[in-house]
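quick q for whoever's on today - can somebody do inverse folding on this one?? i tried earlier but teh output was garbage lol. tokens:
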């Protein structure tokens, strides 16, 4: 029998004798009463941009969906397999979350691949190529802009794709309906893994701005 890597087992030992003990009452109550997160967040698979870490979230606080480059595909009830849409459906319709947050990040490998005309498929299936074709028109426009540096193009497409994903959220009838009735808010944000900065999308202009963190009082 093969074993999990030692560092994982060591990490689990730390968890079960530390955080799990500290949070045991909360785990019990969440187990008995079910989860009631107010937020669903769609983030990238990137190991450097973990939403629970960035937002200092405890157990049961955020329903997290992660996919390559944090993309929301348009609503497409075509009988195919749609993991992100399935997670959104559960979060919005069953859990009745109040916020949907699309979080992108700097130095995103998926976005880099979308900008690279010479990107070669990593396997015969080319799942990344197919998935990233969701942002192909924007990627072509940004890649062709010779006024920007590579870094600027990368950041631009990371942010444009967040705006696209938020727009695609509204193609889901029940998401649009709940937003219009004021029961659901849609948000975008972008995390800079090199500085730790968080930039939040202004929902009126689409621009990304540094949030006012105030004096640390909770909301
Ligand atoms: Zn990424």
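ok took a stab at it. sequence:
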């Amino acid at each position: 029998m093969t074993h999990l890597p030692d560092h994982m087992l060591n990490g689990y030992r730390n968890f079960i004798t530390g955080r799990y003990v500290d949070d045991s009452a909360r785990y019990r109550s969440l187990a008995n009463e079910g989860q009631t997160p107010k937020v669903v967040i769609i983030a990238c698979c990137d190991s450097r941009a973990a939403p629970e870490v960035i937002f200092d979230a405890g157990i049961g606080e955020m329903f997290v969906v992660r996919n390559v480059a944090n993309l929301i595909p348009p609503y497409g009830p075509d009988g195919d397999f749609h993991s992100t849409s399935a997670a959104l459906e559960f979060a919005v319709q069953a859990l009745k979350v109040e916020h949907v947050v699309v979080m992108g990040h700097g130095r995103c490998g998926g976005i880099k691949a979308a900008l690279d005309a010479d990107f070669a498929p990593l396997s015969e299936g080319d799942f990344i190529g197919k998935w990233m074709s969701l942002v192909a028109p924007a990627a072509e426009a940004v890649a062709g802009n010779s006024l920007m540096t590579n870094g600027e193009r990368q950041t631009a497409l990371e942010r444009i794709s967040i705006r696209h994903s938020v727009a695609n959220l509204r193609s889901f009838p029940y998401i649009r309906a709940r937003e219009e009735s004021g029961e659901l808010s849609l948000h975008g944000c972008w995390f800079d893994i090199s500085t730790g900065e968080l930039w939040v999308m202004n929902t009126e202009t689409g621009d990304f701005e540094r949030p006012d963190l105030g004096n640390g009082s909770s909301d």
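fwiw Strands lie at 39-44, 62-67, 99-105, 185-191, 198-201, 208-209. also The longest helix spans residues 150-169. so keep that in mind when u check it
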